[in-house]
Amino acid sequence: LPAVIVFLFDVMPQKHLYKAGKKPPRSKAKGKTKPPSRHGKIAKTKKGKLVKPPKSKALQDKYKQDLETTRVINAFNEKGVLTKASSQGDKLRVLKQPKV
Q1: Which residues are CB-contacts of 24 (< 8 A; sequence separation ≥ 6)?
Q2: Between 5 and 24, where is the model more confident?
Q3: Helix/strand/coil (H, E, C) string of the chain?
Q4: What average pLDDT does the structure give for the chain?
Q5: Which residues contact residue 86 at a Cβ distance below 8 angstroms, ignoring those fewer than 6 apart?
Q6: What pLDDT shows up at residue 28?
Q7: For residue 83, which of 92, 74, 75 has the smallest C-alpha distance?
Q8: Distance separating alpha carbons of residues 59 and 65, to the nearest angstrom
Q9: Radius of gyration for the chain, computed over Cα atoms and rounded to the nearest angstrom
């Protein structure tokens, strides 16, 4: 009787665990690996998203115009906040980040 049971398990088809071409999912514990050596330097934290100007001339003009529009709007908003604060008797200082 035990030989019959073993035989049944050997004959049963098994489903493929992973489809061809797909890799098994990696565990989250591994994560990204640290570079082997930075030669004593600390890692810099990247802030903000990387913005690269477009390469075509037409898109460059639109990009520059958009940047200028953004600057004008930001200056207008800062001026409005400053006048509102000064009208209420408060002092508002706008601190610019120093260029390194």
Answers
A1: 17, 18
A2: 24
A3: CHHHHHHHHHHCCCCCCCCCCCCCCCCCCCCCCCCCCCCCCCCCCCCCCCCCCCCCHHHHHHHHHHHHHHHHHHHHHHHHHHHHHHHCCCCCCCCCCCCC
A4: 77
A5: 92
A6: 56
A7: 92
A8: 10
A9: 31
